[in-house]
Amino acid sequence: MNADLVYLVAGASLFLAIVLPALLDRWAISAPMVLVAVGFAVGLTPLPDGMPIDPTINRELIEHVTELAVIIALMGVGLALDRPLELRRPSSWRTWGSTWRMLGIAMPLTIAAVTVLGLAMGLGLAAALLLAAALAPTDPVLASDVQVAGPQTGDHEVDEPDELRFTLTSEAGLNDGLAFPFVYAAILVAAGGFSWLEWIGWYTVGKVAIGVVIGVVVGRALAQVAFRSTSHSLRVAERGESLTSLAALISAYGLSEVVGGYGFLAVFACAMTFRSAERAHDYHASMHEVTERLERLLTLFLLLMLGIALSRGLLDDLDWRSVAVGLGLILVIRPLSGVLAFIGSKSGMSHAQRGAVAFFGVRGIGSLYYLAYATGEAPELASDWMWSTVAFTVTASVIIHGVLATPVMYRIGEPGTETPPTSPDKESVEDR
């Protein structure tokens, strides 16, 4: 591995992270699309020789870097959501009805459909299940174009969040952790030790509960210290010390993993719990800004690496089955599962908005993490075809969803924007 090349790419990704959002503001082109394309072009040159891009050789590195990107994104998502969720208030749970439908109906349907598709294409049960579990969750890292912008703080009254963006954001925050039971199912099947009782009792219920409880406890403890400590030196909210967000996500994730829970759920629960304390305090916006910047930098770096890998052999084992799985998931399975999930729903969204929720199931960094993690736990699941398929699906999602996100969200994402102007002037674009 050439460390100088890593510094070079990291520096380039930092610069692009700063300038791309403003440069692409008025175009139907997302920063992830540009970064993957740039990485692909760089990969065609001799420059990336020695870069750690081969998942079969650098699986552990890829696992940990993508893991870090996801937990930072989950912290940002949890801090960005203004709608409360209180465990002892059933009325607050009802306001998350669209989210529960996507998690409890759409995601299992997606996993089942991709598993069946994989079996029909000749994969073994464990491999088909892993492919489905890795590709099922939407990605909190790459879905910023269709998510809420950030926490509303200050003395003004908090506006009711747009239901479309709220559903996509909250779904991405929760389904990363909820995909883990299915990843473990694939690992257990591959090892020949699958037991329904163990899988439901421990991997589906026990580890989920531990993750949520740890996240709530850490979030409350940190909020108590940050906002209400009797010691002025510990009331970091008064000083605006926004790096507390890093302490929160690392503490919640690490503690949950140590005791056996799902760390992704712990991070999201921690962020939501911390956000519920002093909800109008500007400190939440400061913490969200720090996590957002870190997420952007790390994400763009990973996308550059993905682009380089795509042109350096990651797609060598791509075949028609890979294309069928990737495009079938993005264009048919996920949208249809989402539409079915909203049957009988009283979410208040229009049919077009429900369709947008169903369609914008962005695949990304999380899928790469799950595949790296599972193949580390069960090496017999590792295959170049699986990496090619997941990489193709992520790239296809980046392109398809990246092109459509801006025009679709502009048209139906906000109340009163059913018909956008055909030729917006500079002022209207900036006010958007």
UniProtKB/TrEMBL annotation:
Q: Membrane spanning segments where?
A: 6-24, 31-49, 61-81, 102-135, 178-197, 209-227, 247-274, 294-311, 323-343, 355-373, 385-404
Where is the protein found, in the record's own terms? Cell membrane
Keywords for this protein? Antiport, Cell membrane, Ion transport, Membrane, Transmembrane, Transmembrane helix, Transport
Keyword NADP assigned to the entry: answer is no
Record-annotated Cation/H+ exchanger transmembrane domain positions: 15-409
Domain of life, per UniProt, equals: Bacteria
| The keyword tRNA-binding appears for this protein | no
Entry-linked Gene3D superfamilies:
1.20.1530.20
Q: What's a Pfam family this protein contains?
A: Na_H_Exchanger
Q: How does it sit in the membrane?
A: Multi-pass membrane protein
Q: What is the protein name for this chain?
A: Cation:proton antiporter
Organism this protein belongs to? Nocardioides bizhenqiangii
